[in-house]
Amino acid sequence: MWGACLCLGWLASLCVVADSFSMFKPHETDVDLPEQVASLTSSWDVKKMRILEFVTAQHAASGSPGWALAVVHHNETLLAQGFGLNEVVANPANQVSPDSMFHIGSVTKTMVAVALAKLVDEGRVRWTDRVTQHLPWFTLHDKYAQTYTTLHDLLGMNSVFAEGDSDYQASFGVYSSERDMVQRLGSYATTRTYRQGYAYANVNFAILGQVVQAVTNQTWGEYLTQAIWTPLGMMHTYDWAEHAPADHQLSKGHFVCNGTVAGHEIQAVFVGAMGTSWGYHFDPKGGRALGAGYGIDVVGPSMYRNLDYFDKNGDTAEHQTRTGFVPSRGLGVVLLNNGQLMDKGSNIQRLSRVRTYVLGILLDIPQNELVAAWNESVLAADALYPVGDCKAAAFDSTPPTPTYHPSDAVKEWLAGEYTAMAYPDFVGNASIYVQNKNQLVFKYGTYAGPLIGLTNTTFVWNVFVAVAPAVTVRIAKLPNGLPTIAIDDMFAFVKVLA
């Protein structure tokens, strides 16, 4: 569930556009909504035209190869529409359609939460169960947290894990499986305290996936297929891209830069400028608060006129998913993008704003309010991320130019096996070897690529992983003469003597 999508959003289920609402069709409420429903249905043709014109224009402006849009009203799918291409290079005639399949990234967390909810309904687990009740092999460096962390803590993103914990290693394929990664957590010293508060961390749901497997004797994907997806008619949703039939329209991932394609915890992540940049418009006055549910990003009055609202966003290295639901109006929107934007903030968050704008059209928000909210989000996003880095190594197929050429003696000194200087079991091992009698190659996890010298202490590891077209590698020498290497100034390794 994490291998294919790298560090930006593990748990990468694959979902066809037409399947995207089967689990999320807004429920009927106790509110009498005849006027609202009549307003929506009577003006649907006009709204549909506005939505399609707007989304078509925004897709073109984004530079992304392909988008998909689905709109549901109560139990009816009103719109399932593709825009652009499934892939640019291999098959440029392959258009996005309602049958196209996209990685949904972290929206899979919602799926895992639903799997656990069904197990709770069946009495097989409780939200308050400690993780060790189901995973007796589960260990943490923080023994108090190991003993008392519950499913609720993980689901509500209120654990000892911080954002990014284990993501880097998962991105590079250090772990052989999800269980392997979870088993290695005991050798890593977490930085947060027990129940410190909300902090988004992918690893929480990797652990929960193992809980589902322990209880059901099925992988989380197998259980969801048998217990949730198939009964709901979601016949084209898969836990791994590799599990999708070859004849399905798999929407390939792309990087895009400047138009070039190469439990309910209180949270403050989407409050203020960050929230506005994502297309949220939340006013905390009067004691209002945004919550985060089990596999849900935002719960609360974060949209127009304080309407009830919830969503889950999903990003993999090369795909984006944005959802939005207003239960009292029976409305839901899903947008999918097969091109991860890497330039300025307003383009990176374009899909988020389009989600907000489309909901606004459906909710009869006046045009001037839609435009004002859009412009506010653009300004906030560009203030946070004003300039994108369109690295030549990624977008122009231009490798870094070497400005330092190590001698044969230096190559021999560097070549060998390396172990992590901190948390070696968790971080993993690395190696350097000489290829074709000349080129230094660095290998970490499942990735290997040339080391290109800039100075005698700084190299570039020329691999393309997630949003890192090239990785900085720094070389140092210990007093005992052994070399050390640090990747991205984050993880250091020391050469192991044979």
From TrEMBL:
Q: Where is the signal peptide?
A: 1-20
Give the record's keywords alphabetically.
Signal
Q: Where is the Beta-lactamase-related domain?
A: 55-238
- Top-level division of the source organism's lineage: Eukaryota
Protein name, entry field: Beta-lactamase-related domain-containing protein
**Organism from which the protein derives:** Aphanomyces astaci (Crayfish plague agent)
